[in-house]
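>> received
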Amino acid sequence: MADFLFKVTVIGDPAVGKSSLIRRYVENYFVGDYIMTMGTHISSKNIVFSEFNKRINTKLVIWDLGGQPHFKEVRRAYYLGARGSILVFDLTRPDTFMDLHNWSNELLNHAGKIPTVLVGNKSDLRYLRSVPEIDGYHFANRMNTSYFETSAKTGENVERVFEVLVKKIFLHNIPKEEKTKISEETIV
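>> returned
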């Protein structure tokens, strides 16, 4: 049984690899063919991590939101209750990087200030890369978040993205009194 249940949204332009990242994380496989997400697709994964020298059992409910403009009105409802979000762009398509401003604003407007992680996906396509790594770090810095480059195809950094986000969510959502209580219990 999970100690915590966290809803996470994965957002970004169409065909940046959101569904592939989730599939790699949840089911550990990759499908090379692009299949458009119609509205939303929901996956879940139970994870255990350590914080304050305690094992924390968490269930992640991961909402893959369709990135097409015609889903914009529908997405509004999907943000409700989100505890964290992964913003994804395609390292080979600069337009998807430029659209991150729109995605971060949409997230802020509908979910508030929640923990995020910025992801530049398709790092395996090095010869097609169009977005410099430093640009990703600069954008993440402006958002006050972490930045990772991933490959859903090879699995590079995929686990790490979700691990970092879950810890951020946990630390953001646990009441200060509970953090103090947990810290005191670990000292004894």
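>> DSSP finds seven helices and six strands in the chain.
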